[in-house]
Amino acid sequence: MQVRLLGTAAGGGFPQWNCNCANCSGVRRGTVVAESRTQSSVTLSGDGTRWFLLNASPDVRAQIQAFPRLLPPQGCKRGTALEGVLLSNADLDHTLGLFILREGEPLRVHAPGAVREALTEGLPLGSILDHYSGMRWEEPPPELEPLLCADGSPSGLSYRAFPVPGKPPRYFIRGKGTRSDHTVAYEFTDEKTGGRMIYAPGVAALHRELLGRLGACDLLLFDGTFFREDEMERSGVGTLLASQMGHVPVGGKGGTLEQLAPLAPRHKVYVHINNTNPMLDEGSWEHAEVLRAGLAVGKDGMDFTL
Questions:
Q1: Which CATH class is domain 2-300?
Q2: Share of the chain above pLDDT 90, in %
Q3: What are the residue boundaries of the structural domains of the chain, listed by start?
């Protein structure tokens, strides 16, 4: 299994276009040691030729351009190496890229029921794309099943989705509290090597059962949105708490760093990192603390082979 982190920032990217927080202003001036990041998205493949997109960020065009394996195959006037898109939730920073991917064959989109409902009723994505490429919805299985390519052939990967604590998107709150699949994590297994990855870019709470699942993989890509519960207020850019926005902070007592550090995965990488998060600054003690705990702060362009 080959995995490429296309984008590792939360909504707005890093630096965010309208933000002058310490991180964003510092990276523009060169006083903060940090790399720019596009919005959260990952691609993976079982054979290095046919690829699947995990969340379709608004930056998807630039991300495809930056990773030539996703460009049209040689000899084709038009085409793509993308076989499908898998959505973990219906947030705008994970779905607006679907509009950009409208110029081609019908999109094969894997999404649980609540995500599909939000995207068809709260955000009329389906009806709009019907006037372009159209969409083919796929319900991700709860147990491992082969992940098929667009033509129905095997990809060499198996996958499943499992619900994790999360919130519906702000634009669609109907049914809040009555469905458990507003947010899911994906598990992928390479059918030849046995390599296993879990992708969970948005998680509102950690519990024992979930931690047990997260520990059973080789590569864990996990929600690193905020370092502190009150980070938005500390940064002077908002008042909402991390928990109110559906995220567990990285640092502090009971934070994800403390809970993920003992887990077994060989690679544990934070993704979906908000522009205010101090661990983006490679000279910060927060960044050093993450590394000391055996985790990594995700960067665009990171590659893994499982």
A1: alpha beta
A2: 86
A3: 2-300
